[in-house]
Amino acid sequence: MEKNRGLSLVELLITVAILSIVLVIAISFMMTGSRSFTKGNADSTVQKEAELTVNQIEDMIIDINGGVSMTDDAGKTEMTMYHTEDDGSGTGSLLYTKEAVTWNKSDNNVYCSKWMVNYDDSTDTYVVDASAPDNYVDQLLAEHVTSFDVDLSDTLTTKALDGTTRTIVKSVLVKVGYDDGTGIVDYATSPVITLRNRMLLSDDPANIFDEVTPAAETLKLYYSGVETAGTVPIVDRVSEVQRGFVYNIYAKINTGADVGNLVDWEIGETGTLSTIDDSGILTVGTYETNAYLTITARYKSNPSKKATGVVKVVGTTPLKSLKSVHILTKSLKAYEAHYGSTVVTEGFRQDEEDAITYKWTVALMGGGREISSVVYDDFTDNTKTLDLMAKKDPENFGKILVITLTAHSDITGETVSDQVMYRINDEGAVGGDSFMERGKGGHHDTDYWFENNWASNHWYDYYFCDIYGNRISEYDSLLSCITVEDRGCTAYGLFITNDLPVNRSYYIKVICYCSNTDWQGFETNWQREFIQYIPEVRMYGKSNYESTTISSIFNFYYVLDGYYEVAWMNQSDPIYEYSVEEFDYEAPAGTVVTPQFTGNTVTLGDDCTMHSWGNFTCEGAADQVVLKSMKIKVTMKDHPEIYTYSTVIFE
Fold this sequence. Notes:
Elements: H1 9-62, E1 67-72, E2 76-86, E3 94-104, E4 109-120, E5 125-129, E6 136-142, E7 145-151, E8 155-159, E9 165-179, E10 185-189, E11 193-201, H2 205-212, E12 220-225, E13 228-233, E14 240-242, E15 246-252, E16 263-267, E17 275-276, E18 281-283, E19 292-299, E20 306-314, E21 321-333, E22 336-346, H3 350-354, E23 357-364, E24 386-389, E25 400-408, E26 415-423, E27 447-449, E28 457-465, E29 482-486, E30 491-496, E31 506-517, E32 523-534, E33 538-542, E34 554-561, H4 565-568, E35 576-586, E36 592-597, E37 603-604, E38 609-619, E39 626-636, E40 643-649
Parallel strand pairs: 1-11, 14-20
Antiparallel strand pairs: 1-2, 2-3, 3-4, 4-5, 4-6, 7-9, 8-9, 9-10, 9-11, 12-13, 12-15, 15-18, 16-19, 17-18, 19-20, 21-22, 22-24, 23-25, 25-26, 27-30, 28-31, 29-30, 31-32, 33-34, 34-38, 35-39, 36-38, 37-38, 39-40
């Protein structure tokens, strides 16, 4: 029987040696992993702390509206910032503050501080108040900071009237190095901080606060130019500027420094022909019609702080103005829009009015398709008239076209516009005319035709509607002013009475209900619809240059829109009246000139412009009379609420 035996001493030693080697390797792997985890965790912490520090400094910088500066020496790096804000009292008083971010190189900490700054009116100085209760000094912002840098190199240098220069900081870049004590250093850099407010590169609070937000009374406007020697204060409604000339406007503070680059400029009057640019260069329009121009300089950093000056506009140049342009409806046949136009001018010679340019644009209301898919025939967009043809495409039925006319005069630089809407007919098989013209004392026998589908039985209904055909029940009381006369299932006549108010426009929906029974007894029912447009009556004055003497006739022009032709032509009972509202002339003492109208004769131009005229009587020295201008009022006789003015300029 074999005896059991254990490990020999040699075998035991070999086993122990192998186990020792395996254990050493395992422990080595564990220690390496632990060190990697510890380092990675430390790296992440350092990065987060560095980014947090940068973000805090960025938040402090971005809203600063005064000034900023940097100092760097052996002991510290410090960024100083100045800020101003309303004190919240509602009186317009301001609070001034100084803030600092300091990196102490001896303890590697970053601190932030804030002090109030007081303005001393007696000495015109700004003094840091070290004892203000809201101050705080050296509050810890970050620890273990190994480097701190603020890049203020993105600047713009401007020069003032007094010869001094100022540097404006456009953007800021912050970089921070951080070590939490592990020996691991990481860096965080902010994105480029584009400043919300204008900020000077300066550490002088008097310079910063006086330039950016001085008290309102310290900012005044001055001007100089070809008509003004030197730089003088603007005195409201006394200081004069000439039409057609250029002036330099300056915004100055009480120290005499020019702060024009710190303000936004504006002219208060609407429709002015004058301009002022970012540098305060005022260009007075050659034909500026405003008697005064209100000029305002407003601080960019604090718009509530401003200065205003009112200058008087003078000059001998005759005033000219492109007042307005109006679209005139000629006829609106189904799928055919025909429009004319007229302009209202003042002081224009005929050649200047002829030089006005016109541009038509057509757009589909609501979009969704290009207008070229609706309009099948191109139109000339630079004439006084528009003839537009629309496709008889079911996709176009009922669509609204927005039609705009723009007129521009190079003489005055003015642009004016007008806009109408045209509704494409709903039914491709229906023809006719959708435009009903008004007339005086009765109306023409106006028929509207449907193109097909005879019916043995038919009847009509009608009501006032909007451009889409939706009934307007508020107008039902006016239905007695409308008559639709049955002309058979393919036509009807539309009539309106003089009781329908003329100072508004209308849409009338006419519906023809049809039924027909064939020889087999089958009944077919259908209906046709059409929307008629009745325009309001409007009158526009046209002003043309007219050179004349008192021995000649004077001419004036106007347009009466929305009325049938025969009503405004030569009638035994005219519908218009004339009166002189203003008459300006020069004559020796005792000489009297009186304008009078030559009957009520009117001629009608191709563009629906009415031309009338008159002459003068003179008592005294007729050869020494100088005519200047005359303003004529044209009124509808039966509707005095409808009138216009026509100003005749004599040269």
